[in-house]
Amino acid sequence: MTTKNICLEEIIPGNPVLESAKFIFEHSKDVQITKEGIYNAANIIFEKMKQKEYSVKHWKMNDLHPQKADEAAINWIFLVDLLNFSFWSDLDKEDIPGYTSPDRYTVFYNNRSYTGYWSLCAAINRALQKGIPITTPDFYASKERLSDLEIKQIFKSETSEDIPLLEERIESIRQAGKILTERFNGTFATCIQQANQSSLKLLTIIVENFPSFRDEASFLGRTVKFYKRAQILIADIWYCYNNQNTIFGLGYGTFHDIDEITMFADYRVPQALHHLQALSYSPFLKATLDNYTLLENGSQLEIEIRGCSIWAVELIRRHITQKLLSEDGKNETEDNEPLRVNAILLDYYIWDFASSSKTALNVKAHRIRSIFY
Hints:
Belongs to the QNG1 protein family. Its EC number is 3.2.2.-. Keywords: Hydrolase. Pfam families: Q_salvage. The chain has helices at residues 16-26, 35-51, 71-82, 117-129, 137-140, 148-154, 166-183, 189-194, 199-209, 228-241, 268-275, 283-290, 300-326, 343-356; strands at 31-33, 107-109, 112-114, 216-219, 222-225, 279-281. It is mainly α. It has one domain. The protein has a two-stranded antiparallel sheet with strand order 1-6.
């Protein structure tokens, strides 16, 4: 039975991403969501979240992330999420979380090697440590001040594999730096201030002004929206600045509608959702993934995987919310902290589950080269 028959709380979504996800699910052929699967996944996640609370404080627990909530950190977060895409390696033939080829793209920083998303953070921090103001928009907008060759050196690998989609990253850097300089006083902080503490307004500002964040596709004659990196950018601001005050008397990370942000549709979270039985794939899709077929950006299979993942996490969120209401007084972690649930924290948990799994998950992740994730 699919969730078309589930009587979970029906809320008219305010986020266009959620509206798109629901539409995709209702017309999906190769990806399905089952009622039993949603309940199973929600119950597993609920119990695990009580054991290991996920909250905004965990973001700063990694020392590669900014530890000081100031305007410099805003521009660091913007640059990281501008470039936060396509870190999987063609060299990783075994789709086992935690396994990496010794020759994949690697950045060495402060006596440690980093791969994946963390290689991006390390490369940027390494440049800053050398006195290169790589996170300053008017600096990286200018070819005279920062050449393409110098950008390539900043993201130089310690191995034979270069960072994927390097030319696309350089183009994104130039374009975004120019837009911030010409429209927003040279800082992403201006965008946040203009949003007036609304995550959805900030989302609109981002996707309307920065083309590389405009993560959209055409599905059955309709434009569907995912906005993965734009929403991660907002979530990272929330993580870093939550409850922090600024000279304007407002917290940069204070958003009255932060719970409207959806999960971030990438390639690892859908894989984990399938493993948790929240998603089911057709034999055709499974065979496609087993063959490591590179999907096209905007293809129907990719759209169904991403859209159904967003909708599945929304249904999981609703079910856990109902459990919290029904277990009044028991909705605390083992450390007696209040348990908070939104799609951002659920995504964090599911991504961590997939990345920390000691064995292969029961379906391979889909492969795609895209600037959107």
